[in-house]
Design brief:
By secondary structure, the chain is an alpha/beta fold. 58% of the residues lie in helices and 9% in strands. It folds into three domains: 204 residues, no CATH class; 208 residues, Rossmann fold; 29 residues.
Length: 524
C-alpha cells in the first residue's frame, strides 16, 4: 500500500476522533472544567513515565520460549546460547535509526555467525569455512520462516507496512514532537500559564513515547537475533546437515505430546515412522546378578520370554514397554563382574550408551563391591565427554534386593524409607544414602526396589521406579531428539548424494540430446 493511501485511511479514521475531542474540549471550557480536568493527563503520564524508567532499567530480551535453549541441547550448545543472549541484552544500546535498517540486521547476523562458529571451532582459522552451502541456506530459511510467522502473528498491520513505512517508525516521535511543540507555542503565546503544562508534558509524555518506541524496536531486534542464533547453534552442532524438512518434522514432534496409551507391554503399538521421538531407549547396565533382568521383568509386569523381545545384538536384548504414551525400549546389557568390565564389555556398553536416552544402573543392595560400577560410569562419562555433540543421558540408580536387608526374614510392605519407623525402613534409607554418597552427582537419583517377579515379591517398581523414570523422560526425550536427528543425517547423506547425481546426470543427458519434439512444439 502506498504512503498517500495509508495517510488517507489514517485521516478518515482519526478525523471523527479529533472532532469529538475538540468538541469535548470546547464544552469543558464553556462550563469551566477544562483547566481542572486537563491535569488528569500529567497525573497519568507521570506514573507512566516512572514505570517506563523502572521497567526499561530491567528490560530483558524476549523469552527463551521464542527460541532456545532447547531441551535437547548439549552443554556446549547452552554455553553458545550465552553469546546470543548477550547480543540480545545490548538491544537497547542500539540507535533506533539502525534498528530499522535491513543492512544492519545482516551485518549483526554475520558477526553472530562468526562468534558462534568460533565457539565451536576455537582453533580454526576460518570457523565458518567448514560449513556447507546447504547448511547456510538452511539457517537462513528456518530463521526467516520463524521470523515471518512471529511478525505476522504478533505485529498488527505487518502485512500492510512497507520498508519505507517501517523506516518512518524511527522518525515518528520526532514528527510528533515537532507538531506538538508548534501547537504549544501557539498555546503559550495565547496564555503564558500554559508553560507549566507544557513542561509537565515534555518531562512525561515525550519521554514515555520515546521509551515505548525504543522498546518496540529492541524487542523486534532481539527476536531476530534469537531466531538467527538458535539456528546458527543448530548448524554448528551438525543438526542441519540433513534435509530442513526432516529437521522441522523432528523438532516439531519434540514439542508435541505423544498419544495417550496404557502402560502395558502387550498393548504397546509398533513404532511408526511419523513418531520416532515417542520412543525412548533405556539401557539397563550393572554387575552380574545385580538384578537387571528382574528389573526389566518387573517393569514389563511379566516374565519376558524370547518371543516378547526385540532383536538387538548377540550381547544386548531389547524389550518394549509403554509409559505416558511413549514407547520405552529397554536394553538388557551383559553384566560385568565385581573385578570390573573387560574391554569387549566396555566397548559394548559404549555402543549401547551411544543410542540410549536414559540409563538404569542396577545395584545390588547387599553387595558392598562398588568399584566396578564407579569405574564403568567413569569410563562412560569420559567417552561421552569426548563427543560434545551428544547430550549425556541421565543415569538413575536402581537399588535391588532390598528384601534381603536386615532383618532378612521380615518382608511386610509397604515401607516408607523416606520417614523410617521400623528397622527395615531404616536399612533401606541407609542403603540409599550410602549409594548417594558413593556416586554423588553422577546419578540423577537412587530408587530402592524389590523385583522378585518369580517369587511374587515386587515392591517399589510402581511406587518409586516408574515415577522416577517418568520424571526423567523430559531430559531423556532431549537425548532422543539428538539421536533421531543424527540417525536421519547419517542415513540421508549418501541417499541425497545419489539423488543429486541422478538428477544432474539426467539434465546433462537431456542437454546432450538437444531439444525434444515436445520442446520444439512449445516454441513459438
Amino acid at each position: 500500500m502506498k504512503l498517500w493511501r495509508l495517510l488517507v485511511i489514517a485521516v478518515l479514521i482519526a478525523a471523527p476522533v479529533v472532532v469529538l475531542v475538540v468538541a469535548g474540549m470546547v464544552a469543558l471550557w464553556q462550563v469551566g472544567l477544562y483547566l481542572w480536568l486537563w491535569w488528569l493527563l500529567p497525573l497519568c503520564w507521570l506514573p507512566a513515565w516512572l514505570l517506563a524508567r523502572v521497567w526499561q532499567a530491567h528490560w530483558v530480551a524476549p523469552s527463551p520460549a521464542l527460541g532456545g535453549p532447547a531441551s535437547y541441547w548439549t552443554p556446549r550448545d547452552e554455553s553458545a546460547w550465552l553469546l546470543v543472549r548477550a547480543e540480545q541484552d545490548r538491544a537497547l544500546e542500539i540507535a533506533p535509526d539502525q534498528l530499522v535498517d535491513p543492512h544492519f540486521y545482516l551485518q549483526k547476523a554475520m558477526r553472530l555467525a562468526t562468534a558462534i562458529a568460533r565457539h565451536y571451532h576455537p582453533h580454526a582459522q576460518d570457523p565458518i569455512g567448514a560449513r556447507s552451502v546447504l547448511e547456510i541456506l538452511a539457517v537462513a530459511q528456518l530463521a526467516l520462516e520463524d521470523s515471518h510467522r512471529w511478525v505476522s502473528e504478533y505485529v498488527p498491520g505487518s502485512h500492510l507496512i512497507s520498508i519505507d513505512q517501517w523506516r518512518l517508525l524511527a522518525k515518528a516521535p520526532r514528527w510528533l514532537s515537532l507538531a506538538g511543540n508548534l501547537g504549544w507555542a501557539v498555546s503559550i503565546a495565547a496564555n503564558p500559564l500554559n508553560l507549566g503544562r507544557y513542561m509537565a508534558q515534555r518531562m512525561t509524555m515525550n519521554t514515555g513515547a520515546r521509551q515505548l518506541q525504543e522498546n518496540a524496536l529492541a524487542w523486534f531486534y532481539a527476536m531476530f537475533i534469537g531466531r538467527a542464533g538458535f539456528y546458527l547453534i543448530e548448524m554448528n552442532s551438525g543438526r542441519l546437515r540433513g534435509d530442513p524438512r526432516d529437521y522441522r518434522r523432528v523438532t516439531r514432534a519434540e514439542l508435541e505430546p505423544p498419544p495417550a496409551a496404557r502402560t502395558s507391554a502387550a498393548a504397546t503399538p509398533k513404532p511408526t515412522p511419523t513418531s520416532p521421538l515417542h520412543h525412548v531407549v533405556i539401557a539397563v547396565i550393572g554387575q552380574v546378578k545385580a538384578g537387571k533382568s528382574s528389573v526389566i521383568n518387573a517393569l514389563i509386569g511379566q516374565h519376558a520370554a524370547h518371543v516378547d523381545s526385540l532383536p538387538a545384538t548377540a550381547q544386548v536384548q531389547a524389550y518394549r514397554l509403554t509409559e505416558q504414551g511413549r514407547e520405552l525400549v529397554l536394553l538388557d546389557t551383559p553384566g560385568y563382574d565385581d573385578a570390573g568390565a573387560t574391554r569387549p564389555q566396555l566397548d559394548t556398553l559404549r555402543d549401547v550408551l551411544t543410542g540410549a536416552d536414559l540409563v538404569l544402573l542396577v545395584l545390588k543392595a547387599t553387595s558392598p563391591a562398588r568399584q566396578a560400577d564407579v569405574a564403568v560410569l567413569r569410563d562412560l562419562n569420559a567417552h561421552l565427554a569426548a563427543q560434545p555433540e551428544r547430550k549425556p543421558p541421565p543415569v538413575l540408580g536402581v537399588l535391588t534386593h532390598i528384601d534381603h536387608l536386615s532383618p532378612m526374614l521380615e518382608w511386610e510392605p509397604p515401607y516408607d524409607w523416606t520417614q523410617p519407623v521400623v528397622r527395615k525402613e531404616e536399612q533401606i534409607r541407609d542403603a540409599v544414602q550410602y549409594q548417594g554418597q558413593l556416586f554423588g552427582d553422577t546419578l540423577a537419583g537412587i530408587v530402592p526396589v524389590c523385583s522378585d517377579v518369580a517369587g511374587r515379591r515386587t515392591y517399589g517398581v510402581a511406587e518409586w521406579l516408574l515415577p522416577a523414570i517418568v520424571e526423567l523422560l523430559g531430559t531423556a526425550h532431549g537425548c532422543a531428539v539428538l539421536r533421531v536427528l543424527r540417525e536421519q543425517t547419517q542415513r540421508g547423506q549418501v541417499r541425497r548424494l545419489w539423488a543429486q547425481l541422478a538428477k544432474a546426470g539426467w539434465q546433462a543427458l537431456k542437454a546432450c540430446r538437444g531439444p525434444s519434439r515436445t520442446d520444439n512444439q512449445r516454441m513459438p
